């Protein structure tokens, strides 16, 4: 008697890169699916049966794994619902060698094999895997060459002054893939340039534009999606004021070419604005420190009373003295004074938080709370160790290196909320337990702490 045939559940995966012609009664997805189903039917004697679900990705690139049907297929494989994956061609599954390696690893872990209808390849054999990798290498090469061709075409088109798509700039509409002046918006654009020349400040100009309700470009995409305008920020203004497109030029990789669209601005007004921007840039370079190191220990942790995130910044005066602050995010985007809370001296607020951490290390209530959490994670832990570790750390807290205190603050704290009358600190749920592990006897953290204490003695 013949041995019983084991049933193998087969899933057909289909993909096309473009959504064109998918609305036709019979399209590429349908053709791939029918070929896959026919291939499964031809293997019925081997126990192959199709699964009920369809895995179709129409209009998705094979260059990445961000595809809904593929994610669903991988989830079903992980759940043990699929034994064999069938595709029309190998590049329907992916065109990326790295992504394919990840998929094959998942297939191996779940005992799943892979077959391509037109290429007669089976990943269950070593020869099949070799052929898969060879074919996929060519598929990835084809994708990269296609990308190079597209980039070359964009560069050549921009050199001819053609608009190559994207969000239309304020002052222009897109008609048959060409920029056409929108007269109402063009008047706003000219007004922005004129006011900037008069005010000589992007901060004041951003405030004025927002008071008037002037926003960035509101437009409707080709597929009918409406994109509303947003409040104009200082960053928007810098980008707009430096955009040579308003002079009738097209820029690409630092070069500008005469455009096929009409200019909104004249050269004299453009030159005036650029001269002011050059002076403003020089002042910012000499007065503002934009690069922040580990001394900004509350970066990402500090919030204003109204919930606005506080960003570290620093100013260097003519005397050479440097002052550090935390600035509300809205002030950075829309100009100083947008958030009524204002700036906070960095040294004062950081000292207050560091003092709170030190107090927590000494607090009986916090010690008891930490001990309770440590017990949940480690039943063998001993209470004297937790108490002694926290007390020893508090004793040397002020002498720790700034980098180490910064690291510990980030380990223990998730948020520092400013109030009009003080601060609220949100402790990290597992931060204290993680710290106790570092300070456990014979651990690297405990040895380093002992060395620091010996060096200070």
TrEMBL record:
InterPro entries reported for this sequence: DNA_bind_recomb_sf (IPR038109), DNA_bind_recombinase_dom (IPR011109), Resolv_N (IPR006119), Resolvase-like_N_sf (IPR036162), SSR_resolvase (IPR050639)
SUPFAM superfamilies attached to this UniProt entry: Resolvase-like
Domain of life: Bacteria
Domain Recombinase stretches: 169-283
Membrane-spanning residues: none
All residue ranges annotated as the Resolvase/invertase-type recombinase catalytic domain in the record: 9-161
Pfam families reported for this sequence: Recombinase, Resolvase
Listed Gene3D superfamilies: Putative Large Serine Recombinase, Chain B, Domain 2 (3.90.1750.20), Resolvase, N-terminal catalytic domain (3.40.50.1390)
Protein name according to UniProt: Recombinase family protein
Protein species of origin: Aromatoleum bremense
């Amino acid at each position: 008697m013949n041995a019983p045939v084991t049933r193998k559940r087969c899933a057909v995966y289909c993909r096309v890169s473009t959504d064109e012609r998918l609305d036709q009664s019979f399209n590429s997805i349908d053709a791939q699916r029918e070929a896959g189903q026919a291939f499964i039917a031809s293997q019925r004697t081997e126990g192959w049966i199709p699964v009920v679900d369809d895995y179709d990705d129409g209009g998705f690139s094979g260059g990445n794994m961000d595809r809904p049907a593929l994610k669903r297929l991988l989830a079903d494989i992980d759940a043990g619902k699929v034994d064999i994956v069938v595709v029309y061609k190998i590049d329907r599954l992916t065109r990326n060698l790295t992504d394919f390696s990840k998929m094959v690893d998942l297939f191996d872990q779940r005992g799943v094999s892979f077959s391509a209808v037109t290429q007669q390849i089976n990943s269950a054999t070593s020869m099949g895997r070799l052929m898969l990798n060879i074919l996929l290498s060519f598929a990835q090469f084809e994708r990269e060459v296609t990308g190079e061709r597209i980039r070359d075409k964009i560069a050549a088109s921009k050199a001819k002054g053609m608009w190559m798509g994207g969000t239309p700039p304020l002052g222009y509409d897109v008609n048959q893939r060409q920029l056409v002046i929108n007269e109402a918006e063009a008047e706003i654009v000219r007004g922005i340039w004129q006011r900037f020349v008069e005010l000589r400040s992007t901060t004041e100009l951003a405030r004025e534009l927002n008071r008037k309700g002037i926003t960035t470009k509101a437009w409707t995409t080709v597929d009918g999606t409406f994109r509303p305008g947003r409040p104009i920020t200082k960053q928007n203004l810098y980008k707009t004021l430096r955009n040579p497109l308003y002079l009738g030029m097209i820029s690409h990789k630092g070069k500008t070419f005469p455009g096929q669209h009409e200019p909104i601005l004249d050269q004299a007004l453009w030159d005036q604005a650029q001269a002011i921007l050059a002076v403003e840039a020089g002042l910012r370079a000499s007065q503002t420190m934009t690069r922040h190191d580990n001394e900004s220990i509350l970066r990402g942790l500090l919030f204003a009373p109204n919930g606005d995130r506080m960003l570290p910044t620093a100013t260097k005066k003519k005397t050479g003295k440097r002052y550090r602050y935390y600035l509300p995010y809205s002030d950075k985007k829309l100009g100083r004074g947008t958030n009524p809370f204002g700036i906070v001296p960095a040294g004062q607020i950081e000292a207050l938080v560091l003092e709170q951490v030190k107090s927590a290390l000494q607090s009986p209530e916090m010690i008891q709370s930490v001990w309770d959490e440590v017990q949940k994670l480690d039943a063998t832990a001993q209470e004297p160790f937790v108490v002694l570790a926290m007390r020893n750390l508090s004793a040397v807290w002020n002498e720790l290196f700034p980098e180490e205190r910064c690291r510990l603050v980030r380990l223990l704290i998730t948020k520092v909320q400013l109030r009009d009358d003080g601060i609220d600190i949100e402790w990290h749920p597992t931060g204290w337990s993680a710290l106790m592990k570092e300070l456990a006897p014979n651990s690297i953290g405990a040895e380093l702490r002992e060395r620091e204490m010996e060096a200070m003695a």
